[in-house]
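Worked example 2:
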Amino acid sequence: MHLALEHAMTAEPFRIHVDDAVLEDLTRRLRRTRWTSLASGDTWELGASRPYLEQLLSYWSSGYSWRRQEAQLNQLPQFTADIDGVRLHFVHQPASRPQARALLLLHGWPDSFHRFHKVIPRLSRSFHIVVPSLPGFGFTGRIARPSAEQPTRYSARLLWRLMTELGYRRFVVAGGDGGSVLAQLMAIDHPESVAGIHLTDLGWHAGKVDPSTLPHHEKKYLERLKKVFMTDGAYAAVQASKPASLAPALTDSPSGLAAWIVDRFHSWCEDLDGTITKDELLTNIMIYWVTRTIGPSMDSYRADAASPSLTPADRVDVPVGLALFPRDIGGIPPRSFAERTLNVQRWTEMARGGHLAALEEPALYADDIEAFFTTPPVARASAREGDQDVHPAV
């Protein structure tokens, strides 16, 4: 079905299908992996654990079925649409109730729209769900950005356009990691459209605050963030400064790509083996592999290092809900620090979980989103403005 939507945007149905030749080439590369003699232990202190990686790659080459995962992904209603010459890929799962509110779910790095596959069925009982592949990621891929516009802000504007042209004049947004930044930008730039945002972290600008202006407990939090970056932030430093030296290796070597992504998952998850299956982990890696987007996915690091999309002077005035997970990067921030830039209306400190909450703790994550967006003040704000129902063609 083709969707002829507002403002002449046309959404085309999309199904994932990777050529057999791509999968055969991947298998050959995996079976020809050349192992380094470095980091042969299982401590993770130097990066990806060699024994863990060997087991993962063995399963990837001989046990994992992309076709099975591809079929499961294709159970989600997926589309592409052209906005400003950019072909955006997105999942659009309408709720059974036409008057339901629209919810935009935004992933970050190094994950993908697959981050939300566990919560889409649950949340679509209450919301019309839209989950894009962010610009630079997955089946959206690298985009051409106007040179005069800050790249992350341009991505936020594209996503706002996607929602409004799908027919949602008023909607809510939830995101983490890079998705947190995009949600905040959308709320700042388009408060007439965004009724509220739900975040699992404060975004990239937290470390840009002048610590001399802060009380002691907030200074301690920034010191903790700085320590985390110094001991575990090499990935960000490389991606922000020398991505062209890294991307070719990760695009050419599946073992290298897996090591780079698995290292982050292990560092940021409370219990990687206990909460995320190897099939889920590999499917996320596969989305980067088959689309060759590990390089473009790093663009936001470079762009924000050169020209920050958010600064401590930016403030989100729409209602904000925060679901904070203890094993997230730097731990749980002081509420007073969050309130410097966010209109915090809900503050939930979770008992468990890490940076990839929708994958690790989908029930906790979905419960908090439902609780925030279906109770005041967000419910009042949406009702006051009037949510736009999903376009009848969907």
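The mean pLDDT is 92. The beta strands are 3-4, 10-14, 78-83, 86-93, 101-106, 127-132, 171-175, 194-199, 316-324, 342-349.
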